[in-house]
Design goal:
heterodimer; B: 11 helices
């Protein structure tokens, strides 16, 4: 299992691919620092930076790139077959990959969000954002890991989820928020550190339970899918 | 090709017909790229995403035309394009990796460049194909809106002509979008052979710049407000519209800096094309 995790990490960070993950968190922190430096009121810049950029773009996009990168790219290459033919339970493969995706996503999003929260309000908000980001990245990772097993175009489907479902519908149609991970993250962070900056739109139990359902359901269904995974030759 | 270059003649018949030059390679690549953009000549699966986007755009245009015939104006040609900004991002994120990342992935670039094809031709054909595809995505619905308005006009030919004069700048605006988005997304897509990474990178690049505009707008400086639109491709094109149409209100105030938006557009497109060229010149010379 540790070997699978090691291979996955190397696949993720090999060549210069890891550099793709850097600009987003850096931009997030830079924007917060600029606003802080110019003494703009946090109530003015908190919403666009924390929610607009941090929770609506940085977290889902990084989770998408990493989550589909750990499994989807191997399915794409066909190299997944080398792992599948080893005498390993499929459960261990999924768990190792999920763990890598979770840790990488959590590290690259929680750290900048902590800094932003610190600059915006207080350590408490920073910690709250970091915890919420860790929870959210688990749910996102499980979802995107599952997507890369149920479809050949996981990134596009994931983008539809992030852009259309969370981005467009989540803003206008209140019912879709119950199935939007972004809203759980906002709610959790708002609950841990109540400031005026965040505006959680779902209730806390819903956020906790639904995050758990996304994480567990995604993992279990992904294990199930990988159990009956067939290497199709079709490459379109 | 030349007789002297034959190492071992195994007696196959040679091709003696006319050899098509660079121009026809360019045309073939352009046509193939344009077809691939919409999934023609591919499996049904690869048609899903492009046609989903195109379908939404066409649907909006049809609804708009239908409402207009009843006297309700939903969007004009410019607002229509602005409304579709997110769809355009999604479209280039689907199509740009399809055009360039696949070639890198399957290692066919050496085959391409073993023809009488220069790096400039390759880049030109791909960019032209994507620009055309994005322009079709925006221009075709605009044409539907035009037809809807033209057939319901009350003032005869004069009304049709006036409507046509309104359509032309709308098409021009679509071209501005098409060039900027095509060159940016192809540049990002040409960095990686993995379509998944390329699509994620393109969306990230376009999305992460949007909040920057919002932040610059709250800074305590008038100049920062006027220049804030430069930070994101979407608001850059909006800024050009505001500049050229003399202060249409789109929630962005460009002040006296309108020409800078135009200059940045030109520079950005040129820079992307040059970087693409540099990238493929390296591949071509291998």
């Amino acid at each position: 299992m540790s070997t699978v995790a090691y291979i996955t990490v190397r696949g993720l960070f090999g060549r210069r691919r890891a550099l793709l993950l850097l600009p987003l968190p850096l931009l997030l922190m830079a924007l917060a620092a600029i606003c802080r430096g110019y003494d703009v009121k946090p109530s003015d810049w908190g919403q666009p930076v924390i929610v607009g950029l941090g929770l609506a773009v940085v977290l889902p996009v990084i989770a998408l790139i990493v989550g589909t990168g750990v499994l989807g790219s191997e399915v794409d290459d066909g190299t997944i077959i080398h792992i599948l033919t080893k005498p390993l339970p499929r459960r261990d493969i999924i768990l190792a990959k999920l763990l890598v995706a979770w840790v990488v996503t959590a590290l690259t999003t929680a750290v900048p969000l902590f800094v932003v929260g610190l600059l915006a309000d207080s350590t408490r908000l920073g910690v709250a954002l970091a915890i919420a980001a860790v929870v959210g990245s688990l749910a996102y990772s499980a979802l995107f890991l599952l997507l890369s097993l149920v479809t050949r175009r996981p990134v596009l489907l994931g983008l539809v989820y992030v852009l259309v479902w969370e981005g467009l519908l989540g803003r206008f149609v209140s019912g879709t928020r119950v199935l939007s991970i972004e809203q759980y993250v906002i709610t959790l962070a708002d609950k841990i550190a109540p400031t005026g900056l965040l505006d959680g739109k779902v209730s806390v139990p819903v956020a906790i339970v639904m995050s758990a359902i996304f994480a567990l359901g995604g993992t279990i269904y992904a294990i199930n899918r990988l159990g009956s995974f067939s290497m199709a030759g079709e490459t379109s | 090709m030349s007789e002297a270059g034959v190492i071992h003649d195994i007696g196959y018949q040679r091709y003696t017909g006319p050899r098509l030059g660079r121009a026809s390679v360019f045309t073939a690549m352009y046509v193939h790229g344009l077809r691939a953009a919409f999934g023609f000549g591919r499996s049904a699966k690869s048609k899903i995403f492009p046609w989903m986007v195109a379908g939404i755009a066409l649907l909006i245009a049809v609804i708009n035309a239908a409402l207009k015939s009843r006297g309700i104006t939903l969007f004009n040609y410019f607002q229509f394009v602005d409304t579709l900004a997110w769809l355009v991002i999604f479209f280039v994120a689907i199509v740009a990796p399809e055009l360039v990342s696949r070639d890198m992935r399957s290692g066919v670039l050496p085959l391409y460049f073993s023809r009488p094809l220069r790096a400039a031709d390759y880049v030109g054909a791909k960019v032209a194909a994507l620009v055309t595809a994005v322009f079709l995505l925006l221009g075709a619905p605009q044409l539907i809106m035009f037809l809807g308005a033209a057939f319901t006009t009350k003032t005869g030919m004069r009304g049709v002509w006036d409507e046509f004069l309104r359509l032309l700048p709308g098409w021009g605006y679509s071209l501005l979008w098409a060039f900027l988005f095509a060159s940016l997304s192809l540049l990002i897509a040409s960095l990686t052979g993995k379509r998944a990474f390329a699509a994620g990178g393109i969306v990230a690049a376009f999305l992460m710049t949007a909040p920057v505009v919002g932040v610059l707008n709250v800074l305590p400086s008038e100049t920062a407000h006027h220049l804030s639109g430069l930070a994101s491709p979407m608001s850059l094109v909006n800024g050009i519209q505001i500049w050229l149409r003399d202060g249409v209100d789109l929630g962005l105030d460009v002040g006296r800096f309108g020409p800078i938006y135009g200059i940045e557009w030109v520079c950005l497109v040129a820079a992307c094309l040059l970087l693409l060229l540099a990238r493929y010149r390296k591949v071509a010379s291998l």
